[in-house]
Amino acid sequence: MAMLSRGAIEALGFSSIGENLQISDRASFYGAERIKLGSNIRIDDFCVLSAGVGGIQIGDYVHIAVYSSLIGAGRIVLSDFCNISSRVAIYSSNDDYSGEAMTNPTVPREYTRVTHADVFLEKHVIVGSGSVILPGVTLEEGVAVGALSLINKICEAFGVYAGNPAKRIKERKRDLLRLEEQLKAMKAV
Predict the structure, then answer these.
(1) Cα(138)–Cα(117) distance, rounded to whole angstroms?
(2) What CATH code is carried by the domain that includes residue 144?
(3) pLDDT (tens digit, 9 = 90+) per residue, 119-129?
(4) Are 131 and 145 in contact (CB under 8 A)?
(5) Which residues form the domain of 176?
(6) What are 68-103's pLDDT values in tens digits?
(7) Residue 83 falls within a domain, yes or no?
(8) How far apart are CA 160 and CA 27, in angstroms?
(9) How far apart are CA 94 and CA 20, in angstroms?
(10) Which residues contact 189 (CB under 8 A, 6 or more apart)?
(11) Residue 40 in contact with residue 83, Cβ under 8 Å?
């Protein structure tokens, strides 16, 4: 995986960028002027970030693995220490599937009924491979999502969720909060 140079990242026109960015030259960005990148971020091959009017905000120490996508007109926020495994899809827009309107972006807007809702992943969220997160969802701090899960409603803090649709199956340990403090203390030195 070849990573873009700092100059190449700057040339993409992001709203803001932090330090220590590892971005694959095979990742794609649409609406880069509405994408904010923190520091210590890695975005792997074949990821697609398509920021609509709400934009995309990515915090510090975030990894987005291969073939993942963040798409939609609503705001998408990945807070510090989030980990998005391969082939995860996060949507902040959704077509109307009822048949009362037409679908797809090639149809003029007046014939469609696309809805938009913000998506928030709070600190220390990890999302397993192949999972889908739908518009309007918040994954609270420390949530872990098992592979191949469908997230269509709020996931409460430090829960482990899995399934289609996902359900809370157990509690997640909070040791990572102590480790975060250690990391911050080490960086402050």
Answers:
(1) 10
(2) 2.160.10.10
(3) 999 999 999 99
(4) yes
(5) 6-188
(6) 999 999 999 999 999 999 999 999 999 999 999 999
(7) yes
(8) 29
(9) 33
(10) none
(11) no
What are the tokens at 38? Answer: 């923190």
Both tokens assigned to 189: 């030195």
Distance, first Cα to last Cα, the chain: 32
**C-alpha distances in angstroms, 40 versus 31, 59, 170, 185?**
21, 9, 30, 16
Evaluate whether residue 20 is within a structural domain. Answer: yes
- Tally of CB atoms within 10 A around 25: 11
**Any domain includes 80:** yes
**CB contact at 8 A, 146 and 170:** no
Whether the upstream peptide bond of residue 108 has omega within 30° of 0, thus cis, is no
Give the helix/strand (H/E) hosting 175: helix 175-188
For the entire predicted model, the pTM comes to 0.97
pLDDT at 189: 82
Determine how many CB atoms are found less than 10 A away from the CB of residue 151. 25
